[in-house]
Amino acid sequence: MQLATHQTMPLNDANRLGLDYRAEAARLPYGRPILDAHVHLGDVQAAELFFQIADLFGVQRVCTMTNLEVWDDMADRFGDRVVPICIPNYLKGRDDPNQFTTEWLGRIEDFRGRGSRIIKYWAAPRGRDLHPEALVLDSPLRRQGMKLAHELGYRVFMVHVADPDTWFARKYTDPRKYGTKREQYPAFEALMDKYADVTWLAAHMAGSPEDLDFVQGLLDRHRNLLIDTSAAKWQVRELSNPARDRQVVRDFFIRNRKRILFGTDIVANAHDASFDLFASRFWALRTLMETDYQGDSPIVDPDLHMMDESVDPKSTAHLRGLQLPDDVLADIYHHNTAKMLAAFQV
Ligand SMILES: [Zn+2]
């Protein structure tokens, strides 16, 4: 696929190629509705812009991590287009540790009262800096929350297990505090066995797009595991890594076509709201999945400079399209998420 609009628009960190994302969206091959299983809509105003752009990219409905304080307004405005995921209030949590403990337990009930059946356990290693215990995946407090969520009828446990390899190389330099990347996983696997009757949705290709053999092992050992494609910079950088065999990556998606959900991880709030910011994530992930594009990603990837200081801070990763078959795209873009949501009705 050739770009039609190279250098026709002003440059910014979400658009180093000067693309007209509106025009590029209209040229993408896939033409049916798409569901996004992983977004963060922070407020109604930013969500208005988000949905204008979602419309351009065919994204009909989203599962969103939205604070309880905002949820009712969000649901009033967008109705069926938004599906709530139970989360603690991370913003308040910076000053108030109760947000991750007693307040969170209360919110599990409150979100359930608003129809939520999906709960997110964010367990990135850096969570230990926010709260040393409560954001660890299998801490006593988290286990208490899981038990409560299960009793209340949550049936999707969404999880962020690990961060990019690049972060373990540069940011998590104290393994005694954060653990190694591999050490993030045993607790996750044990919990998937313990809660075998819930669907586990592991964000960001289960946190290991760098090692799809490892992800395959997780999928093979745990039939109740789904993964999402979210975090555009990370996925593009790793899944398009020129050192890796495109066919192997493509085969992984085809083999696991029933287990992979399209997700972007777009964050939309008063601080993060621009046309190019949102459009670039949809464009990059859709271009990765459905086209044969080979060239620069339009999105600045700071990890490239972090890993090698001789690399320009404004560098963008290579983007190599997988050109997945149309019926595989239909599963990943729509059917798998629709099936997950439909299971709540029974
Ligand atoms: Zn996210």
Integer-rounded radius of gyration: 19 Å
Sketch the topology as an H/E string, one letter per element.
HEHEHEHHEHHEHHHEHHEHHEEHEHEH
Report the end-to-end length measured between terminal Cα atoms: 42 Å
Coarse shape: globular
Overall mean pLDDT stands at 96
Description:
This protein has 346 residues and is an alpha/beta fold. It has a single domain, classed as TIM Barrel (Alpha-Beta Barrel). The protein contains 17 helices and eleven strands. It has helices at 21-27, 44-56, 68-78, 90-93, 102-113, 127-130, 140-152, 165-170, 175-178, 185-194, 203-206, 212-221, 232-239, 246-255, 275-290, 302-307, 326-342; strands at residues 34-41, 59-64, 82-86, 118-122, 156-160, 199-202, 225-228, 260-261, 266-268, 294-300, 316-320. It has a nine-stranded parallel β-sheet with strand order 8-7-6-5-4-3-2-1-9. The longest helix has 17 residues, at 326-342. It is globular and about 50 Å long. The N and C termini lie far apart (42 Å). Bound molecules: zinc ion (ZN). Zinc ion binds next to strand 1.
Write the topology of this structure.
Layout: H1 21-27, E1 34-41, H2 44-56, E2 59-64, H3 68-78, E3 82-86, H4 90-93, H5 102-113, E4 118-122, H6 127-130, H7 140-152, E5 156-160, H8 165-170, H9 175-178, H10 185-194, E6 199-202, H11 203-206, H12 212-221, E7 225-228, H13 232-239, H14 246-255, E8 260-261, E9 266-268, H15 275-290, E10 294-300, H16 302-307, E11 316-320, H17 326-342
Parallel strand pairs: 1-2, 1-9, 2-3, 3-4, 4-5, 5-6, 6-7, 7-8
Antiparallel strand pairs: 10-11
Helix pairs in contact: 1-15, 2-15, 5-7, 13-15
The chain binds zinc ion (ZN).
Zinc ion binds at residues 38, 40, 203, 265.
